[in-house]
Structures are given as C-alpha cells and as structure tokens.
Design goal:
alpha+beta, seven-stranded antiparallel sheet, two-stranded antiparallel ribbon, globular, Metalloregulator ArsR/SmtB family transcription factor, WH_DNA-bd_sf, ASHA1/2-like_C, DNA-binding transcription factor activity, HTH_ArsR_DNA-bd_dom
C-alpha cells in the first residue's frame, strides 16, 4: 500500500493514470503525447506505477500496451471509502464507468496477480485438467496446440462443457491465448470473447496477467470482474500452499 500512495503522490503519474482511465491500453509513445516529457522520464514514472501494481502491461506483437489495473484502488476504496459511501454515489459511479467503457474498444477486463511459483507450474495450473478441476470447479481439456479446440468441462461427471473455444496462441510457459464461447454459439464468430494469459518470471515469483476482451455487454463484464479474481485467488492458494481455499471464493456474497 505504501507503494500505491507513493505512486499517486506525483502529479505526472496521476495524469498517466487519468490517460489510461480515459483510453486504456496505450503504448509508451501514445502516453508520451501531450505530457511534455522525454520518453525516458515517462518510462521511469510508468515503472513506479507498475511497481505499485497500478499499471499492467501486455505485449501485442512488437508493441507494449499499458492498462490501468484497478485492484489497488479498489482496496483503498474498501478500506477507507466504502463505509461512508451512499447508494446514490454508487449508482453515479456505475453510470460513469459504463459511459467510459462505451468509449473504447480495448480489452474490457485486465487482472494482475503475483504468485510465488514458476512459470511452468502456473502454465500447468491453467492447462492441466486435474489441476483446473481442483481450483476452478471445471476441467480445462485440450492438447493446447495452436488451432486446437478446448473445453471447460464440469467436474460432476456429466461431461458437459460450459465454455468451448480455440487455442489461438500457445507458447509454454509464457503466453496462452484462447477464444471463449457458449457451446450452443460455437461457430458464431461475433459471439466469441478472447482470453490472454501472460506469465512472466521475476526471481522467485510470477506475474500472471489475464486479459479478457471482446465481452458482449456490461453484464458479461460484471461476471468476469467477480469471477476471475475468485478463480485466480484459488489458483494462487493451490500453488503457494498446496491446497485450495477452504470455501469456493466465487460463492462469497459481494456485500
């Protein structure tokens, strides 16, 4: 939390966060425009924001895109603001967020977590059918080759898949990209969303960035915004402690 407050204390860094809030997923060159500062200086400010987990980066080809990561700000809100917040302000905030999201076609949801593990173990946790069954309640089934089909299969023995898709990129252990769609909409390209897992090692920890884009509407965004943190918290617990959380986190009431 000290790193978050340090990062927010600087006017330039707050301006960079505002720029990402208005138009998420910008390159370094785009962020430099209008700042009136050398690229090296902007890079240093972005490094402070990344260290505070306020900014996450995703590689797209040769470009490095920067995204506002709302998790630390949400933690501040929960600790110091929510107890004083009125329902009216919550409604106004929701309206504002929807208006901002409607202005961009960039990835709708980006989530970053840090895990004491190795990239190989994180990759296996995302792709091994038995491991995903342990922390996700579904088995992710595929050979994970580029172009292959994958399925998110229930663990109740029914064999029913709630999500299916195609493996778009598969670079073990650093990057996995898959499409997602309901089985009854398979083949309808306009119905697909896309999930990217970027896995980066730093000494003895791993930074896992999940980008879920092309979501159809605000309802879907709300679902993944609550679903991904719960699933990834369970994954983190499994890799760091050897067991999942004692209760399924996605069943916990939001309030």
């Amino acid at each position: 939390m000290d790193k978050v407050f340090k990062a927010l204390a600087d006017e330039t860094r707050r301006r960079l966060l505002d720029r990402l809030r208005e138009d998420n997923g910008q390159t370094l060159g785009e962020l430099c425009a209008g700042i009136g500062m050398a690229r090296q200086s902007v890079t240093q400010h972005l490094a402070v924001l990344e260290a505070a987990n306020l900014v996450a980066t995703v590689r797209r080809g040769r470009e490095k895109l920067h995204y506002l990561n709302p998790v630390p700000l949400h933690e501040i809100q929960e600790r110091w603001i929510d107890r004083f917040e009125s329902p009216r302000l919550r409604v106004l905030g929701a309206v504002k967020r929807r208006a901002e999201e409607a202005m961009t076609d960039k990835p709708t949801f980006v989530y970053v977590t840090y895990i004491e593990s190795t990239p190989e173990k994180v990759w296996d946790a995302l792709t091994d059918a038995d491991l995903t069954a342990a922390y996700w309640g579904h088995s992710n089934v595929s050979d994970w080759r580029t172009g292959s089909r994958w399925a998110h299969v229930r663990t109740d023995g029914s064999g029913v898949a709630d999500v299916v898709g195609t493996v778009v990129e598969s670079e073990r252990p650093s990057r996995l990209v898959t499409t997602w769609v309901a089985p009854d909409e398979e083949g309808q390209e306009d119905k697909y969303s896309r999930v990217t897992f970027d896995i980066q090692r730093h000494a003895e920890i791993v930074r896992l960035t999940v980008t879920h884009e092309d979501l159809p509407d605000e309802s879907a965004r709300a679902d993944v915004s609550s679903g991904w943190p719960a699933v990834l918290s369970n994954l983190k617990s499994l890799l760091e402690t050897g067991h999942v959380l004692p209760q399924e986190p996605w069943l916990m009431p939001t309030r």
